[in-house]
């Protein structure tokens, strides 16, 4: 399938329980990808999951503006426009936007701004990194 598992949630909403799998891949996830993943996951859960309550299985994309958190998230979105928010301002600025040029194993990300300059950030100094969607 070529999908990455981004996150899993088991939540109660109203009187129902939901087991949610969020999947992604480079280029985005289609409804067919989600349906195929659901068909693959369902029998595995039936065979080995120890949840006594009934639940609804949901498989979806994490959403267009979901924050990038894991190393794989950053790798998957290289070359895309992102917004980087910092815990502490750098030269009076807390938010930067540009192309995510690189991300390395040490958690350093490199951003190319619209003006062509490059700025590096340590993942630990970022409060949030998310994709910028342009329509």
For the largest sheet, list the strands in their spatial order.
Answer: 7-6-5-4-8
Uncertain stretches of 5 or more adjacent residues: none
Helical content band: 10-25%
Largest sheet: 5 strands, antiparallel
Mind telling me the CATH class of the largest domain?
Mainly Beta
Whole-angstrom Rg: 18 Å
Query: How many strand units?
Result: 8
Please tell me what the overall shape is: elongated
Mean pLDDT: 90
CATH names the topology of the largest domain as: SH3 type barrels
CA-CA gap between termini = 28 Å
Order of helices and strands: EEHEHEEEEE
Q: Indicate how many domains the architecture comprises.
A: 2
Class by helix and strand content?
alpha+beta
Structure annotation, total helices? 2
- Estimate what percentage of residues fall within beta strands: over 45%
